[in-house]
Amino acid sequence: MSAAGDRRPAPAQGPGGAGAPPSPSRRRLLLLAPLGVAAAAGVGFYAMLRGLGTGSYDPKGVPSALIGRQPPEFSLPPLEGADLPGLSSADLRGAGRPVLVNFFASWCVPCVIEHPQLMRLAREGVPVLGVAYKDKPADALGFLRRHGNPYRKLGVDLPGRVAIDWGLYGVPETYLVDREGFIRWRWAGPITDDTLKQELQPLLRRHA
Amino acid sequence: MKYLFFLAFLLAAPLTPPALAAVSDPAEMLRDPAQEERARQIGRELRCLVCQNQSIEDSDAELARDLRRIVREQVSAGRNDADVLRFVHDRYGDFVLLRPPVKPATWLLWATPVLALGLGLTLILAMRRRRAAAAPPGTAEDLSAAERARLAQLEDGRSP
Hey, of B92, B96, B131, B142, which one would you mutate to test binding to chain A, going by the most A CBs within 10 A of its CB? Predict the structure, then answer.
């Protein structure tokens, strides 16, 4: 092939015309593109990992569908032997001050972790209302005897049906119902000291 | 050919029925097989919120079992599929639906396949046009006298 001495001249091309091969700067740009994508992905992953560390990002967290709504209608029987009234939706309608509804169970380890914070809230005068979720009455009673009772009212939800009406997907879960009776906040997981200071106490002040 | 098979496999994969539900406790099932089948169809649309990449039909979690029971109760009570799905959706929000609803927040999600296809087609067309412009197809008339002679020589040498 190379024997042909007189080759057809390349078609005339304007600078950067449609037919132009990529100019050196453009080629360099193309080579850098994958690096750019990798860098962006790296920054994204770093942000996610940081969020996981500080707790601001939770990939398994489920936003509650009940925020801004009134609690579902329900009426739960009291825990026998606890000497506390049962809990029903009427107790949450316009209580005149924000109240907390806490779902717990004696078989739930994170519930033990959050219990001191609930006790503290109760001491500070915040109404904490409890629901014993899928817990044998005797076990729930034992739990309160061992760790103290923060609840003003306590309903027993042995089949867990009322919990499903609340959109609960694990214990512990805590809901803040404001003075007008609307759900403003849901915390899935134990209320730690940090949760108390950074989330719950500012909310309680705002809705007081 | 191998490539074609692979492509066919990829295309067919979503059509194959999902693996049999992991949970098949006979005590949970409805007596009426038609109703049980409907309940399963509904259950496959619902995410288990405990083990989040499984439907409630596939999950062994306690909450999934409770939701399966609720779905079956409502199916046997004669409520239609949309009603049952709405019941769960009202309580658990969009996240519980394995097929996200089409609404402004999910438009981009639903449009992504179309957008990606459009982008790919545009890229292919643009590259083809550029290549066509860079090398316009030559004809025999474009050849110089020397090239034409060389071509004739090659053709002669090939044919016996």
Answer: B92
Residue ranges per domain, chain A?
A: 20-59, 75-207
Domain ranges of chain B: 17-101, 103-136
Of the pLDDT bands very low, low, confident and very high (cuts 50, 70, 90), residue B52 is confident
Q: Under an 8 A CB cutoff, do A4 and B150 touch?
A: yes
From the list B91, B144, B150, the residue facing A165 with the nearest CB is: B91
Q: Does A62 touch chain B (CB under 8 A)?
A: yes
Nearest-Cα distance to chain B for A170, in Å, is 8
Q: Is B129 on the interface with A (CB under 8 A)?
A: yes
**What type of residue sits at position B127?**
M
A3 burial type by CB count under 10 A (0-12 exposed, 13-18 middle, 19+ buried): exposed
Q: Are A78 and A85 in contact (CB under 8 A)?
A: yes
A60-87, pLDDT tens digit by residue? 778 899 999 999 999 999 999 999 999 9
- A188 beta partners: A173
Residues 6+ apart with CB under 8 A from A69: A182, A183
- Kindly provide the b/e burial profile for residues A120-153, where b requires at least 16 CB atoms within 10 angstroms of the residue's own CB: ebbeeebbbbbbbbbbebeebbebbeebebbbbb
Mean pLDDT of successive 10-residue stretches along chain A, which has 208 residues: 47 47 75 92 94 79 91 96 95 90 96 97 96 96 97 96 96 95 94 93 93
Q: Give the per-residue pLDDT at A38.
A: 96
The CATH superfamily label for domain B17-101 reads Cytochrome C biogenesis protein (1.10.8.640)
> In the CATH hierarchy, which fold is given to the domain comprising A75-207?
Glutaredoxin (3.40.30)
